[in-house]
């Protein structure tokens, strides 16, 4: 048997990691400025995270959602307090795509409608309705294209107002900072306009915080930079620091009923303690403030590089846009300088998504390495 070949792979095989350092099978150490698609939020193998999971594994790793799991209640209370979203209810699942699937399904149940508004360069997952709302025809199969999705330009007030007046939409789904699409953002005025029009027209506003949530933007959620209140918030990636966890926060105005949503693995004991560990470290080590502060420092240092034409993003969800495609630069950063970075749909954009506990020294090392490859 062979692996189904769907990923182009770099010739690097990590075997251990600590903090933002990753060691491969040849003993070479790399600095991880990508975090495996923004997944590593509190650093690889954080001792509190490891101890939490080891301790839980010795007790019980899994049972289904047919019985009570007190860890879920512990999680919902801490998440509500740290995020400032006490007026929401939590449904746990396993991934970002699954989170957005459940968000879209719930919006359709709630409104009795089926069409969705999404935005150019948005990315919401690779499954069913989630991939249908993703602006990439290459990953949409004919079965996905049965979904009714309207793609609009980001920050186009007229196009949005015209579309939403048709009274056929169940949901608007939006990333406050586009991840795969290349770090573009709605303006505060546009995000607030969307929220206002959704409320006026009875449309569910879904804030996709799968990549930008859990402190990465310098706020707990990136939509909080804009002073709006979504109806549903989808979360995943950084919430488990590598353990597969996802979920949606559902405003209390949307009511639950038995059988409305369901999952076998979602909210299992290990998933809960992984997420609790992340939240505890975020609070104890003040990592959201660290992300905000170091995001400012990173941008200041990036502005000194003539090759950088635009600096995008917030906190430690950042992009450097050049006047050339960066694929070769990424390879050289890996093989010559031993730095992991990311790409995006924007081929000229270098994506930076390190753990939230990096230091100024790590950023200085990154720019030293980058300058070597640009000289």
Automatic annotation (TrEMBL):
Pfam families xrefs: Aminotran_3
Parts forming coiled coils: none
GO terms assigned for molecular function: identical protein binding; pyridoxal phosphate binding; transaminase activity
PROSITE patterns for this protein: AA_TRANSFER_CLASS_3
Highest taxon above the source species: Bacteria
Transferase in keyword set: yes
Signal peptide annotation: none
Residues that span the membrane, as ranges: none
Keyword list, A-Z: Aminotransferase, Pyridoxal phosphate, Transferase
PANTHER family registered for this protein in UniProt: ACETYLORNITHINE AMINOTRANSFERASE, MITOCHONDRIAL (PTHR11986:SF79), AMINOTRANSFERASE CLASS III (PTHR11986)
Annotated protein name in UniProt: Acetylornithine aminotransferase
